[in-house]
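stage 2 :: seqdesign
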């Protein structure tokens, strides 16, 4: 009795060798296509991940620029555009203590002279709670002289204020003031910060390099003009301005003390 021939392994009954080879080729192509798709998908995922990281970095940089640079318009803590920066803010004021506002430009030679003569008296009156001492910082001399000194040093002072070292920086900057008309670098200004005892110099340097408080300083300068200040140094005690010839009334310890006592309510 004749038997039906057994089909060869790996092929259909009645299939030719050519059909078997074609089936293997098609299977291989499908397998290859599937791997390619997997690779393509993996590549897209990787690219999207890179885009997300880069986008995050850019966003952070923009956010930092807004917080510390031309996009920042916030005043330093303890300051307002019109009232200036209060020094010795932790001191409890005596009843009726007047506000004494000092209008200064860190590039101003006359301001250095006044600070040398009266700075310690102002500081002591503030420490004793007899006055609320405020500094209204200006930068008009940058435009007048063409130098870049007033604004960088002012930024240095307010960046130091971020670390509780405004008064120390302020005093150091006037003690070692650069000549009027000289531009300064962050490295120059950093010497004042070191003298002041600023602890985190990396943060301070980034703050100054970014010009974190430039917008505030510009606004403070404009506000001083609106308040009737025409030069520096000028003191405002109560509602009265002392500048030019009248500055002499508050240019001695006795004179300043008498004016403060008269303004105490």
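stage 2 :: out
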């Amino acid at each position: 009795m004749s038997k039906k021939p057994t089909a060869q392994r790996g092929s259909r009954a009645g299939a030719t060798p050519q059909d078997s080879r074609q089936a293997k080729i098609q299977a291989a192509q499908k397998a290859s296509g599937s791997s390619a798709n997997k690779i393509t998908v993996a590549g897209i995922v990787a690219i999207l991940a890179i885009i997300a990281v880069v986008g995050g970095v850019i966003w952070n940089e923009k956010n930092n620029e807004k917080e510390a640079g031309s996009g920042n318009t916030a005043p330093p803590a303890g300051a307002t555009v019109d009232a200036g920066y209060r020094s010795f803010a932790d001191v409890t004021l005596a009843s009726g203590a007047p506000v004494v506002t000092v209008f200064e430009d860190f590039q101003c030679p006359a301001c250095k002279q006044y600070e040398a003569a009266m700075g310690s008296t102002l500081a002591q009156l503030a420490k004793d709670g007899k006055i609320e001492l405020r500094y209204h910082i200006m930068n008009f001399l940058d435009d007048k002289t063409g130098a870049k000194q007033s604004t960088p040093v002012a930024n240095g002072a307010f960046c130091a204020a971020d670390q509780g070292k405004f008064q120390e920086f302020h005093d150091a900057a006037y003690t070692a003031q650069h000549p009027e008309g000289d531009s300064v670098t962050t490295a120059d200004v950093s010497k004042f910060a070191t003298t002041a005892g600023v602890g985190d110099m990396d943060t301070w340097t980034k703050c100054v390099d970014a010009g974190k408080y430039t917008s505030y300083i510009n606004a403070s300068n404009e506000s001083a003009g609106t308040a009737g200040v025409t030069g520096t140094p000028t003191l405002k005690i109560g509602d009265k301005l002392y500048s030019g010839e009248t500055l002499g009334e508050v240019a001695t310890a006795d004179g300043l003390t008498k004016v403060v006592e008269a303004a105490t309510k």
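stage 3 :: structure notes
- DSSP finds nine helices and six strands in the chain.
- The longest helix spans residues 17-67.
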